[in-house]
């Protein structure tokens, strides 16, 4: 199963995932594409912010209250913004396309 990710410079990356991984784990384990994940996936920092391609949004569960709160303070939030630590990978997400959101540094 695959994730297609675009980094901040427009570079394309393909990652493999296992069911049950978080998207954040997938995007940080193999190479550095700019996901800092400072809180380690605890939904406490928004440094794993990504934009999910519109065609995939309806396949994701709704945002939790914690995710909404973290995104409220994130940089350049858009309708397709999600925290990658809150997306649990499943076969239904095979081929999902995401873009790393701009960093606030």
Secondary structure layout:
Blueprint: E1 2-6, E2 12-16, H1 23-29, E3 49-52, H2 54-57, H3 65-72, E4 81-83, E5 96-100
Parallel strand pairs: 1-5
Antiparallel strand pairs: 1-2, 3-4, 3-5
Molecular structure report:
β1 (2-6) and β2 form a beta hairpin. This protein has helices at residues 23-29, 54-57, 65-72; strands at residues 2-6, 12-16, 49-52, 81-83, 96-100. The protein has a single domain, classed as Ubiquitin-like (UB roll) (Roll). The protein has 105 residues and is of the alpha+beta class. It is built from 3 helices and 5 strands, in the order ββαβααββ. The chain has a 5-stranded mixed β-sheet with strand order 2-1-5-3-4.
Q: What is the topology, as strand order, of the major beta sheet?
A: 2-1-5-3-4
CATH topology: Ubiquitin-like (UB roll)
Task: Domain count, please report it.
Answer: 1
Query: Which sequence of SSEs, written as H and E, runs from N to C?
Result: EEHEHHEE
Core attributes:
single chain, 105 residues, alpha+beta, Ubiquitin-like (UB roll), 3 helices
Please sum up the structure shown.
This protein has helices spanning 23-29, 54-57, 65-72, and strands at 2-6, 12-16, 49-52, 81-83, 96-100. It has 105 residues and is of the alpha+beta class. The protein has one domain (2-100): Beta-grasp domain (Ubiquitin-like (UB roll), Roll), CATH 3.10.20.
């Amino acid at each position: 199963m695959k994730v297609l990710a675009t980094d901040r410079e427009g570079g394309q990356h393909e990652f493999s995932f296992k069911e049950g991984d978080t998207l954040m784990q997938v995007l940080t384990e193999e190479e550095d594409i700019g996901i800092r994940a400072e809180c380690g996936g605890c939904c406490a920092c928004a440094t794993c912010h990504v934009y999910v391609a519109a065609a995939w949004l309806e396949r994701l569960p709704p945002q939790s209250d914690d995710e909404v709160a973290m995104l409220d303070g994130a940089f350049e939030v858009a309708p397709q913004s999600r925290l990658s630590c809150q997306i649990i990978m499943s076969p239904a997400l095979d081929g999902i396309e995401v873009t790393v959101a701009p960093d606030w540094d």
